Amino acid sequence: MRRDRPINLDLTTVQFPITATASILHRISGIIVFIALAIFLMLLNQSLTSETDFNNVMGYIDNFFIGLIIWAALTGLVYHIVFGVRHMIQDLGYWEELESAALSAKVGFIITAILSVLTGVLVW
User: Fold this and answer.
1) Burial annotation 24-44 (CB, 10 A radius, 16+ → b, else e)
2) Are 67 and 61 in contact, with CB atoms under 8 Å apart?
3) What DSSP state is assigned to residue 114?
4) 9, 76, 96, 102: which could form a disulfide with 29 (CB 3.0–4.6 Å)?
5) What secondary structure does DSSP assign to 45-104, as a single string?
6) What is the fold, at CATH topology level, of the domain defined by 17-123?
7) Cα(56)–Cα(49) distance, integer angstroms
8) pTM of the model
9) From CA 77, how far away is CA 25, in angstroms rounded?
């Protein structure tokens, strides 16, 4: 069966619902957390080797760019935890309707923003 419907392949013009955006960002934050975990474990291993290596790692952390990377990784972790809890609540049968799912996504974004600012205060 052939349909002559217009096809829009330009994804920049597609408006995703907030629930879809939250879900996609949850997956991306999981990848970021996975990669950051490897880097943090490497830094932990290096810092536990000797006092000199510990001081070297602390010198890395004092760098603004490295602090920004640490903040971004921790923000990804916070986002992943907040929306992971949201997904688990949805698995229990709550917030499955469109309105409540959209509201829970908005609340999750607000909580993540607040915790992200607090994380930035702790990093710097």
Assistant:
1) ebbeebbebbeebeeeeeebe
2) yes
3) H
4) 76
5) HHHTT-HHHHHHHHHHHHSHHHHHHHHHHHHHHHHHHHHHHHHHHHHTT-S-SHHHHHHH
6) 3 helical TM bundles of succinate and fumarate reductases (1.20.1300)
7) 11
8) 0.85
9) 12
